[in-house]
Amino acid sequence: MKNVRSKLEGKVPEAAIEYCIKLWKLYPFQFKVNRKRLSKLGDYRYDPRAQSHTVTVNTDLNPYQFLITYIHEVAHRVVHKPRSRQLPHGVQWKSKYQELMLPMLNPSVFPDDVLRVLAKHMKNPKASTAADPKLVKVLAQYDVHTASQPILESVIIGEEFFLRKRKFRKLEVKRTRALCLDLANNKRYLISQIAEISPVNKEATSESPKVVPTKKSKKVNSTANNQINLFE
Predict the structure, then answer these.
(1) Which of 156, 164, 146 is CA-nearest to residue 228?
(2) Is the CB of residue 128 less than 8 Å from the CB of residue 97?
(3) Domain 152-222 falls in which CATH fold?
(4) The pTM is what?
(5) Is the Cβ–Cβ distance between 194 and 163 less than 8 Å?
(6) Roughly what angle, to the nearest 10 degrees, separates helices 133-140 and 63-79?
(7) Can you give the residue ranges of every domain in the chain?
(8) Is residue 188 within 8 Å of 181, Cβ to Cβ?
């Protein structure tokens, strides 16, 4: 238990530590704090040979995102049944996730701005927090790097930017995502507005004609970014 406590201290809000340990006692599992992974914030794994359960959470998350991810993955641990065909984020998981999160939905654990958005999110939780832009945005305010890392929402129509070393031009906004043109392969992608991007140095960028999407344009792709497919 000391090992689990030491892994949680400084990672989740202080008021949530005892509850997190309680979940670990009720539903035993190996708990690992992993290095940063771009494809996910955490995951749950079951080893049928050893009949063991493992929950991992990324080390770089702010305390509120870490706690949400921890409970998300513990819910997977609780509802898992070997050889079951139930959906990973189906009714059983949603119900258990809501049940496990409920004791944490109070101002002693989350700040008011996060609590309001999270409470609404938990009425019908998605498979990933990435599917809820409002929740992602409010949680991002507590990331250490937020102030210096721009997001796609800050890019105006027609401007270019880098995402994962690929250069795009923002064409138009479609609700919570933006239609963008990959300048290398000339394909269009829908990218989350809260994706972290790197701006292009305007002085080093040659002007090019603005591309306007039409109904006859090529198939729109959905590209992954550091906020998509974060949970398994």
Answers:
(1) 164
(2) no
(3) SH3 type barrels. (2.30.30)
(4) 0.71
(5) no
(6) 130
(7) 2-139, 152-222
(8) yes
Q: pLDDT tens digits for the chain (232 residues)?
A: 779 999 999 999 999 999 999 999 999 999 999 998 877 899 999 999 999 999 999 999 999 999 999 999 999 999 998 877 788 899 999 999 999 999 999 999 999 999 999 999 999 998 888 888 899 889 988 987 545 678 888 899 999 999 988 999 999 988 778 999 999 999 999 988 778 899 887 433 333 333 334 344 445 554 433 333 323 3
Per-residue DSSP letter, 143 = S
* DSSP string for 201-212: -GGGPPP-PPP-
Question: How far apart, in whole angstroms, are the C-alpha atoms of residue 217 and residue 220?
Answer: 8
3-state secondary structure of 177: strand
